[in-house]
Specification:
Blueprint (H helix, E strand, L loop, with lengths): L6 H30 L14 H25 L3 H12 L23 H10 L5 H12 L6 H17 L7 H5 L1 H25 L1 H5 L9 E9 L2 E6 L7 E3 L17 E7 L5 E6 L1
Parallel strand pairs: 1-4
Antiparallel strand pairs: 1-2, 2-3, 4-5
Length: 279
C-alpha cells in the first residue's frame, strides 16, 4: 500500500480504529435503551414529553426502523418480527406502560456522528452537550479541549481506515483511543443517567428544559494513596474515607436524593480516570 509499516501492523491498526467506532456506537445505543426504561415511570402522558423526544420516538424512529428492516430482509433475517416488536413500543403509552423503541438512538444502518450524538442527547434534555462535557471532563481529570472534536476524530479515523487504501495509522492514534473512548462514554452515560432521573423527580421542569443534568450529579473521586484508595467528594480537598479498594466505597457513599445520581470515578496514579460507576 505504499507505506513503511509491516503488513500485519498496518492491517491491525486500521482494524482497531474501525472497531473503536463500533464499540462506541454499541455502547451509546445499548445504554440509551437501558436508560429509557426509566421513562416507564414517567408520571405524565406521552404528549407531555419534550417535543424532540416525541419526534425521535415515533416520527424519526419510523424511518430508521424501515432502513433496518430492509437490511434484515436483504440478509434473510426475520424483519417482520423486528417491525412488530418496535411498532408495538412506538404505539404504547395510551392506556399501557410507555415504552420506547431502540431507534430513538438513531439509524442502526449508519455510523455515529457528532451531530447525531448531539441530536440524541438533545432529545434526552441534555442541552449544550459539548460545553457541559468539556467542563465535566475537566472535573474528572481528563480535561480534553473539545469532546466534540474527540468524537469527530474517532469517526474520521474510522472512515479513513475503512475507505482510504493508503491511510497508515500511527501508534499514537491507536494508543490514544482508550482515553478518547472513555471520555465520550463517561460523559454520555453520566449525562443521560442524571437527566432521566430528573425526568421522574421533576417532570414538569424537565419537560420544559429547565433542568441541568450536571446539577443532578453528585461526583465522587477515588484516588490512589500508597497501596490504598482515598475517597473525595468533588470540590472538597479533604478525603472522606480511606479503603483498601474502590469497591469498599460503594457502601459508604450515601444514597442520592430524588432527581440526582451519585457517580464514583476511579483515577490512576497519574490522576487520570479509568473506571466509573453510577450508584
Amino acid at each position: 500500500m505504499g507505506t513503511s509499516l509491516p503488513p500485519g501492523i498496518f492491517v491491525l491498526r486500521r482494524g482497531v480504529l474501525v472497531a473503536s467506532l463500533i464499540a462506541l456506537e454499541t455502547f451509546v445505543r445499548e445504554r440509551t435503551v437501558e436508560v429509557l426504561r426509566n421513562l416507564e415511570r414517567w408520571p405524565k402522558s406521552f404528549e407531555d414529553l419534550p417535543e424532540k423526544l416525541r419526534l425521535a420516538a415515533r416520527l424519526d424512529a419510523l424511518s430508521y426502523l424501515h432502513n433496518f428492516a430492509r437490511m434484515l430482509k436483504r440478509q434473510g433475517d426475520d424483519f417482520e418480527a423486528e417491525v412488530q416488536a418496535e411498532i408495538t413500543k412506538m404505539a404504547s403509552g395510551h392506556g399501557t406502560v410507555q415504552q420506547f423503541t431502540k431507534f430513538v438512538a438513531g439509524d442502526y444502518t449508519g455510523n455515529l456522528s457528532d451531530s447525531g450524538l448531539k441530536d440524541l442527547l438533545a432529545s434526552l434534555q441534555v442541552s449544550d452537550c459539548w460545553t457541559t462535557f468539556r467542563a465535566f471532563s475537566a472535573e474528572i481529570g481528563l480535561g480534553v479541549p473539545s469532546v466534540q472534536e474527540v468524537v469527530k476524530g474517532i469517526v474520521r479515523k474510522r472512515h479513513r481506515s475503512a475507505h482510504s487504501a493508503t491511510y497508515a495509522p500511527t501508534a499514537t492514534e491507536v494508543s490514544s483511543l482508550q482515553d478518547d473512548l472513555l471520555c465520550i462514554a463517561l460523559c454520555f452515560d453520566v449525562s443521560i443517567s442524571a437527566s432521566l432521573e430528573q425526568a421522574i423527580a421533576m417532570a414538569d421542569d424537565w419537560a420544559l428544559g429547565r433542568c441541568s443534568w450536571r446539577a443532578g450529579v453528585i461526583l465522587y473521586i477515588a484516588k490512589p494513596y500508597d497501596r490504598r484508595m482515598r475517597l473525595y467528594k468533588y470540590g472538597q480537598s479533604r478525603a472522606l474515607r480511606i479503603a483498601n479498594q474502590v469497591g469498599d466505597f460503594r457502601a459508604l457513599i450515601p444514597r442520592p436524593p430524588a432527581g440526582q445520581i451519585a457517580v464514583l470515578v476511579e483515577q490512576n496514579a497519574s490522576a487520570r480516570p479509568h473506571t466509573w460507576q453510577i450508584l
